[in-house]
Amino acid sequence: MIIFLDMDGVLADFNGLMMEHFGVPFDRVGGGNAVERWKLISSELPDAYARLKPLPDADDLVAYVTEVCVTYDALPGILTAVPKYGRLPLAQKHKYEWLRQRWPHLCKNFNIGPFAEDKQKHARPGHVLIDDSKLNIPQWNAAGGYGILHTSAESSIQQLKQYVEKKHASLSR
């Protein structure tokens, strides 16, 4: 079993950086137009992924996932995506370095989708994805994995706890 954590919106506060820099949430940068949004971000924040702050509850989630992985002989991992069309060419490097500075043990299993819709290609039975995207979770589940829609560390921890307890109980029989 691998427990994959998404980065943006699960560990890293990408939306917070957008609010801080542009004064609006990510989906409203560039007036809500995706092409304009990414033009602005790439011109004003080409190192956006290096500037991110961790979400306030990210340490709790990483600690719990790490504990589960030790207890159940699973692997912790990262499954994140980069912007399409080379919009931020250093995104992968910046994400990796950002992660290495905070939770280096997660770098051993660092994966890039490469794009959000590609995450499902990493799904296998028993693999878990904790992701804040309402699109990624059904795709992950359909591909055979177990997806947890992240809204907070507390909620994701609770759902992961229920999943591993149920899975462990069924393997013990």
Please provide a written account of the structure:
By secondary structure, the protein is of the alpha/beta class. It has helices at residues 14-22, 34-44, 48-51, 58-71, 91-102, 136-142, 153-172; strands at residues 2-5, 75-80, 110-112, 128-131, 146-149. It has a five-stranded parallel sheet, with helices on both faces. It is globular, with a radius of gyration of 16 Å.
Task: For this entry, give a set of tags.
173 residues; alpha/beta; 5-stranded parallel sheet; 7 helices; globular
Number of helices: 7
Low-confidence runs: none
User: What is the rounded distance between the termini?
Assistant: 18 Å
User: How large is the share of residues in beta strands?
Assistant: 5-15%
Query: Considering DSSP H and I runs of 4 or more, what fraction of the residues is helical?
Result: 40-55%
Largest sheet: 5 strands, parallel
Order of helices and strands: EHHHHEHEEHEH
Number of strands: 5
Q: Identify the strand order in the major beta sheet.
A: 3-2-1-4-5
Helix vs. strand class = alpha/beta
> In one word, what is the shape?
globular
Radius of gyration over all CA atoms, rounded: 16 Å
Q: Name the average pLDDT.
A: 95
Topology:
Elements: E1 2-5, H1 14-22, H2 34-44, H3 48-51, H4 58-71, E2 75-80, H5 91-102, E3 110-112, E4 128-131, H6 136-142, E5 146-149, H7 153-172
Parallel strand pairs: 1-2, 1-4, 2-3, 4-5
Task: Describe this structure in a few short sentences.
It contains seven helices and five strands; from the N terminus they run βααααβαββαβα. By secondary structure, it is an alpha/beta fold. The model has no long low-confidence stretch (mean pLDDT about 95).
